[in-house]
Write a structure and sequence with these properties.
With 268 residues, this protein is mainly β. Helix content is 0%, strand content 32%. The protein contains no helices and 13 strands. The strands form four sheets. It has a five-stranded mixed sheet with strand order 5-7-12-9-10, with no helix packed on it. The chain has a four-stranded antiparallel sheet with strand order 6-13-8-11, with no helix packed on it. A hairpin with a 5-residue loop joins strand 1 and strand 2. About 5% of the residues have low confidence.
């Protein structure tokens, strides 16, 4: 973007629950004479109407100037569930003209528990039979798992220019002491592709936990497979689109995440 009209160079979809999107370095290898890149956060309605919610421009190089740091937090979102216990979130933007790690440390998104009216047919007291019989230490996450203990997105890129060769990837997760349940992870492959998610080993420290695999990114998308403490997890799940949603859920509200956790070993 220079003194004239902006030039479109690419876009990425923001998946619900994500804290960031990733643009490949190749999109910035441009011969444009502009002096900055501008990022617009766009909302698309069901009828196709497009609205720009926010635009922020970054210069090619830091030119100094005012440093403002974080802007204020947004209002809290609605509860993620229609009954029982859920999660609500809020976000903030880095107000610096050229965001840097020194002024905008910390999380862009924060969550807290919300509790609505009790769901029909459930109880608010967790039966003692569903608590861990003897507390066991939470396993140490393998490399790459710790930042995703409370949810994130795994993005698989193609290894060639033809966009057909997508290397497989092992995903190892140990769920953390998070603000609440459900905890969700998403796995995304390039657009127009599908995937097979192989569940190699899934275990729960508390039988009240279970796992749902959804065909898409939304909590309302079709459930393809569910894993309980007694389920045989040596199976593969085929998606019909480029994204799968993995949800860690509870059978009864009030699960203690200090002692209850899941260990997930997956392969895409």
């Amino acid at each position: 973007h220079g003194s004239g009209r902006r030039t479109y160079i690419g876009e990425q979809r923001v998946i619900p629950g994500d804290k960031a999107v990733i643009f490949p370095c190749s999109v910035f290898n441009t011969t444009s004479s502009g002096d900055r890149f501008c990022f617009s956060y766009v909302s698309t309605a069901v009828d196709g109407a497009v609205a720009v919610l926010r635009t922020q421009c970054l210069p090619y190089k830091d030119k100094g100037g005012e440093r403002r740091g974080w802007e204020g937090w947004s209002s809290w979102s609605s509860c993620s569930t229609s009954c029982g216990q859920g999660v609500e979130t809020r976000y903030r933007f880095c107000g610096d003209s050229y965001p840097g790690t020194e002024l905008c440390k910390g999380s862009r998104v924060t969550s807290r528990q919300c509790l609505l009216a009790k769901c029909a047919g459930t109880t608010s007291i967790l039966p003692s039979s569903l608590l861990p019989s003897s507390p066991s230490p939470r396993p140490t996450p393998v490399y790459g798992a710790s930042p995703c203990a409370c949810g994130c997105t795994y993005i698989l890129h193609s290894s060639g220019e033809d966009d057909k060769n997508i290397p497989s990837r092992d995903i190892n997760i140990v769920s953390g002491i998070c603000p609440g349940l459900p905890i969700s992870w998403t796995v995304k492959v390039p657009s127009s592709h599908q995937m097979i998610l192989t569940l190699t080993n899934i275990s729960f420290s508390c039988p009240s936990l279970h796992l749902s695999i959804r065909d898409g990114v939304l909590p309302t998308d079709t459930i393809l497979y569910q894993v309980w403490s007694t389920t045989n997890t040596s199976t593969g799940v085929q998606s019909s689109r480029d994204t799968l949603r993995i949800e860690l859920q509870e059978d009864y509200p009030g699960t203690n995440l200090s002692s209850c956790y899941a260990v997930l070993h997956l392969m895409v």
